[in-house]
């Protein structure tokens, strides 16, 4: 059963009184204590002039007095800047870089596109500091990938000659961003790949990565990091702890946790999501140490501050017509349309493309497609080469595309979690955005109950101009007939090649 539908999931004691991230103020970079000047200029190059509240909170718990002593669980809205919130302190902690490279930080995310996105953030702040970031996502063969992560015996370039030995492997990267499947492949199969020097483990989109279908990666990873628990560390940063941190919005000394003499003598974990699970059965697998729970606001689910939600009521059989009218009324704004499944994504996309002279470029993005096709589509969407992406749910967790002004739920989501992640593709980083949900009259009640589960979820009714509906009516009928023909045609062919 989905966690959301369980009547009484017991809440772990440490989750009952979270620290409220919204009590942190944004902080301009020049006021961020202990921010290395190279990190500061890397951030400025990214056009970042201040840290968002969740970033300030994490900085405080890692570089500030918290000093990474406790494992951190963060529930913070979509687009609130969680990636940088963990990337920044990890990079800061990995300074100064040692002569011998080893893999010290691992970030696990559910999809390849998300891994690429996270790597880009790390690259932007870690490369200028001499730290290298690797990717393990299954984009190439295991052998090709491992050669980008580890110096194999005999591969001498870049290796300190004092360390060369026929039995000796050296990591090429300090930080690795990985998807679970490929990560396990490397742990089990790749000679020279080791997690024994790991100091930081980040589980991003944690509720998804802790689901049954992903679970086996976690015990494998935790087991292979075990010897790092006795390591002496060397992550740096103790000076920072001793100097103190002036921006505490809460009294964390009331947490009652003694500081150890070496906060790096164990694997520090950071677990995040916009809809973090509270299921003890799932969280227990992470083997968290004195976890500290940081959450934004009072309710478990929270929508971005500048998001406006709308419902658009229409009869089921004319939903595509209303969708097209809505898209037309939104002009040239970038939109993502979500459907309930990969099949309906494919069908809807085909139907929309049958509308003839819509003058809206529309493409499909779903798990039905080959990864290569999907990544290409996403790149084109990012570059603004087309305007409307029709997508299924699974692929879009964490996806950050600049300029998406509208999200459209073609189907009412079943769970509030789904609504939160879909709607969260817009109104990111303090920008404004709108989320429209199409529904029939008999779905209004269920939708209302769903929205009550989230904070900041007021929802007004939206009407598309009736003249647009009238104008498009005959084109809609033609599109339906065209689609019928296409379906019949594809049944005659042995295989539909559109998803290759
Ligand atoms: N301090 C900042 N100033 C300006 N922009 C920022 C800042 N931090 C992050 N951003 C931008 O905010 C956007 C959202 O960040 P990010 O993808 O990390 O959000 P998130 O909280 O992980 O969202 P999701 O839950 O959907 O994964 C990104 O485009 C990022 O570049």
UniProtKB/TrEMBL annotation:
It comes from the Eukaryota. It catalyses: ATP + H2O = ADP + phosphate + H(+). Keywords: ATP-binding, Helicase, Hydrolase, Nucleotide-binding, RNA-binding. PROSITE patterns: DEAD_ATP_HELICASE, HELICASE_ATP_BIND_1, HELICASE_CTER. SUPFAM superfamilies: P-loop containing nucleoside triphosphate hydrolases (SSF52540). Its EC number is 3.6.4.13. Pfam families: DEAD (PF00270), Helicase_C (PF00271). The keyword Transmembrane helix does not apply. One of its GO terms (molecular function) is RNA binding. Residues 322-472 form the Helicase C-terminal domain. Belongs to the DEAD box helicase family. RNA helicase. The Q motif is unique to and characteristic of the DEAD box family of RNA helicases and controls ATP binding and hydrolysis. This is ATP-dependent RNA helicase. It comes from Vigna radiata var. radiata (Mung bean). The gene is LOC106768366.
């Amino acid at each position: 059963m989905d966690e959301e539908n369980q009547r009484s999931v017991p809440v772990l004691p440490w989750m009952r009184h979270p620290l409220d991230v919204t009590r942190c103020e944004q902080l301009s970079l020049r006021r961020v204590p202990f921010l290395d000047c190279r990190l500061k200029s890397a951030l400025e190059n990214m056009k970042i002039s201040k840290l968002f509240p969740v970033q300030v909170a994490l900085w405080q718990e890692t570089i500030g007095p918290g000093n990474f002593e406790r494992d951190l669980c963060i529930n913070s809205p979509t687009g609130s800047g969680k990636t940088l919130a963990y990337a920044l302190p990890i990079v800061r902690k990995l300074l100064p870089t040692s002569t011998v490279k080893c893999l010290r930080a691992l970030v696990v995310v559910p999809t390849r596109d998300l891994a690429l996105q996270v790597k880009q953030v790390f690259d932007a702040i870690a490369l200028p500091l001499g730290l290298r970031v690797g990717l393990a996502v299954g984009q190439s063969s295991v052998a090709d990938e491992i050669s980008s992560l580890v110096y194999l015996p005999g591969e001498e370039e870049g290796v300190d000659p004092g360390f060369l030995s026929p039995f000796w492997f050296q990591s090429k990267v300090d930080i690795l961003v990985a998807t679970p499947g490929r990560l396990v492949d490397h742990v089990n199969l790749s000679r020279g790949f080791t997690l024994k020097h790991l100091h930081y483990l980040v589980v991003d989109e944690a509720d998804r990565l802790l689901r049954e279908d992903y679970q086996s990666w976690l015990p494998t990873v935790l087991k292979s990091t075990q010897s790092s628990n006795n390591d002496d560390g060397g992550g740096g940063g103790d000076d920072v702890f001793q100097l103190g941190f002036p921006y505490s919005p809460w009294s964390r000394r009331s947490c009652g946790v003694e500081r150890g003499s070496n906060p790096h003598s164990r694997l520090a974990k950071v677990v995040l999501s916009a809809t973090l699970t509270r299921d003890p059965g799932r969280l227990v697998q992470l083997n968290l140490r004195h976890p500290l729970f940081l959450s934004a606001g009072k309710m478990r689910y929270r929508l971005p501050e500048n998001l406006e939600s709308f419902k658009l009521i229409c009869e089921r059989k004319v939903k595509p017509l209303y969708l097209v009218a809505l898209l037309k009324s939104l002009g040239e704004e970038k939109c993502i349309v979500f459907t309930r499944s990969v099949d309906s994504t494919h069908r809807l996309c085909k139907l929309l493309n049958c509308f003839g002279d819509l003058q809206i470029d529309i493409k499909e993005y779903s798990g039905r497609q080959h990864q290569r096709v999907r990544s290409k589509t996403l790149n084109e969407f990012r570059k603004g080469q087309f305007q409307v992406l029709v997508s299924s749910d699974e692929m879009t967790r964490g996806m950050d595309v600049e300029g998406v002004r509208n999200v459209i739920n073609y189907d009412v989501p079943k769970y509030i979690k789904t609504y939160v992640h879909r709607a969260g593709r817009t109104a990111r980083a303090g920008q404004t955005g709108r989320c429209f949900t199409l529904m029939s009259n008999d779905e209004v009640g269920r939708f209302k109950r769903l929205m009550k589960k989230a904070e900041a979820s007021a929802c007004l009714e939206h009407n598309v101009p009736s003249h647009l509906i009238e104008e498009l009516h005959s084109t809609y009928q033609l599109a339906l007939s065209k689609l019928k023909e296409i379906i019949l045609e594809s049944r005659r062919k042995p295989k539909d090649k559109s998803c290759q």
